[in-house]
Write a structure and sequence with these properties.
The structure is a single chain. By secondary structure, the chain is of the alpha+beta class. The chain has a single domain, classed as Electron Transport, Fmn-binding Protein, Chain A (Pnp Oxidase, Chain A, Roll), CATH 2.30.110.10. Helix content is 27%, strand content 33%. Strands 1, 2, 3, 4, 5, 6, 7, 8 and 9 form a nine-stranded antiparallel β-sheet that branches. The longest helix has 15 residues. 24% of the residues are buried.
Length: 210
């Protein structure tokens, strides 16, 4: 089969204005709950897109670790490639794709670091190996497997069972000003309902052509 011949017909659901929540946070909560109930594999997996000041983009998959009306939270090494790009250009995009439900969610907005206290709280909830791993990895820097293993052994011994959070590791929050909810439909006539903040800081919803 040619790659060009691979296609899927989307027929499971619809997304109509009458059923849309009043804010993107409420709509996301509804869809995320449905993804959990449908046992979607890693429903909190999302593509994070960042870019340099010159406009060169990069994207990778990270995990959502919290959301509310302030925004969407994930954690990483502040000195990684994504961290460096967010320091240069504190704007980003998130993409959730739940093929089992034939849905996507796109979020765009500004990025900020969460508080040290909130980063500490999440860090301390992680498995010990993950906490030590945050110290071990000079993320996005060249390293040999032997060096990585040696650092893991040395830091596992020196940090003990209760390591403090590394100062170079913590959380970011994306504060969206744009949110698109996409529901697959037959004949590629997909539903695309968008929330955008207006000049009065109010959410306005619009349907976009598929």
């Amino acid at each position: 089969m040619s790659v060009a011949d691979i296609r899927q017909s989307y027929e499971k659901n619809v997304l109509l204005e009458a059923s849309l929540a009043s804010t993107p946070f409420d709509q996301f909560a509804l869809w995320f709950d449905e993804a959990l109930k449908a046992k979607v594999v890693e429903p909190n997996a999302m593509t994070l897109a960042t870019s340099t000041l010159s406009g060169r983009p990069s994207a990778r998959t990270v995990l959502l670790k919290g959301f509310d009306e302030r925004g969407f939270v994930f954690f990483t090494n502040y000195e990684s490639r994504k961290g460096e790009e967010l320091a240069q250009n504190p704007c980003a995009s998130l993409l959730f794709f739940w093929p089992a439900l034939e849905r996507q969610v796109r979020l765009e907005g500004s990025i900020e670091k969460i508080s040290a206290q909130d980063s500490d709280e999440y860090y301390n909830s992680r498995p010990l190996g993950s906490r030590i791993g945050a110290w071990v990895s000079p993320q996005s820097r060249p390293i040999s497997l032997q060096e990585l293993e040696a650092r893991t052994q040395a830091l596992t011994e020196s940090l003990g069972a209760h390591p403090a959070r590394p100062p170079h590791w913590g959380g970011y929050r994306l504060r969206p000003d744009y949110a698109e909810f996409w529901q697959g439909r037959p004949s590629r006539l997909h539903d695309r309902l968008v929330f955008q903040l207006n000049d009065q800081n109010q959410w306005v919803s619009t349907r976009l052509a598929p």
